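Researcher: Quick test of sequence recovery. Tokens follow.
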């Protein structure tokens, strides 16, 4: 199942020659996967994105840019890509106007389109660029203001790290599960 995906001329999307075409009325933007590992990586990424607060799903570039225009430079969100061979897009408020950049997945590594830096998860990429760059700084969350639970989770993860959650005294199993549902400080 390895190999590049090919673009059909009728607007649909083909997988590799061993895969079948995705019909135009497919109920998801996710396209054929190149491997079982890629499928699991995207599935895990999608589940974490659902908990992140800054994943906006099938929002168009125009709508994302309209929302970001009123935010501070560096504010970002993740949305579905409408390009056949790309799963997600990062949209952010630049110094003068909103911009969008594809989040590429190649050989189970994420990168920004045009960059040679690769990361084993989308969240490692976000952590890198939010700490090393001034281009993306803070997420634009769907729920504004964020719920106290979400803010508390981020504070615990930033303070102790996800690896320490299991060992923190006094936390119930359900609270540990909630904390680990999104174990990233972004």
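Model:
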């Amino acid at each position: 199942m390895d190999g590049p995906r090919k673009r059909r001329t009728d607007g649909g999307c083909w997988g590799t020659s061993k895969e079948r075409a995705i019909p135009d009325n497919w109920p998801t933007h996710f396209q054929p996967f190149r491997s079982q590992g890629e499928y699991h990586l995207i599935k895990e990424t999608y589940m974490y994105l659902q908990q992140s607060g800054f994943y906006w799903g099938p929002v168009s570039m125009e709508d994302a840019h309209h929302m970001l225009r009123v935010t501070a430079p560096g504010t970002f969100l993740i949305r579905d890509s409408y390009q056949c061979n790309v799963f997600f897009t990062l949209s952010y408020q630049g110094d003068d106007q909103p911009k969008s950049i594809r989040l590429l997945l190649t050989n189970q590594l994420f990168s920004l389109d045009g960059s040679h830096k690769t990361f084993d998860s989308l969240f490692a990429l976000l952590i890198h660029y939010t700490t090393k760059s001034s281009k993306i700084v803070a997420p634009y969350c769907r729920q504004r203001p964020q719920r106290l639970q979400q803010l508390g989770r981020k504070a615990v993860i930033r303070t102790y790290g996800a690896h320490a959650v299991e060992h923190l005294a006094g936390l119930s199993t359900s609270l540990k599960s909630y904390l680990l549902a999104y174990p990233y400080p972004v």
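The chain has two domains: 36-139, 148-180.
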